[in-house]
Design goal:
By secondary structure, the protein is mainly beta. The protein is about 10% helix and about 45% strand. Strand 7 and strand 8 form a beta hairpin.
Length: about 180
Amino acid sequence: MRYRIPLLFLIVLAVIALSGCDELSLDGVALPLGGSTTAEASASPAKPLATLELPSDGGRISIYSATDELLAGYDEYLDLSWVEEGQMRLAFTSSVLVRNFSIIELSYEDSELYPGRAIIAQKELLPSRPLIVSWLEQGAVSNRGISFVDEGGVTRYFVLETDHEEAHGKSIALREF
């Protein structure tokens, strides 16, 4: 157990180094990295769990179950997931460049929702390189969300909620706050 965290850290660093992203931040520690930012991946045949339309630039952010079939459609992706019992892997994709994309913690105070610290932060979410993370549903209240800076320079925040009313399998709902 004593070597599990350092080994996991080394694995994450190796994945990041091989992924080719420009900059990544884990728990507030920025890790600048090199890589290309070209070539859009082919459209995925899978149905997204959630899609967020970005009206200012005509793009969208989609969340998929990160299956081998989905990932085979990309030349590269950033995989920061680890799968334990009850967890699934989510793939965050975009049809346009999305700036300052983060997976964030959420906090609640007096029934109000507030953004917390960034768990994973990328300078850019690229159409050619999805971000793969672990997702574990923890009760009825979500404690994770996403944030990004839109074309107008405004930081937008969304809570990720499991849609329990989805008739065919799991679905993720994105709600802006």
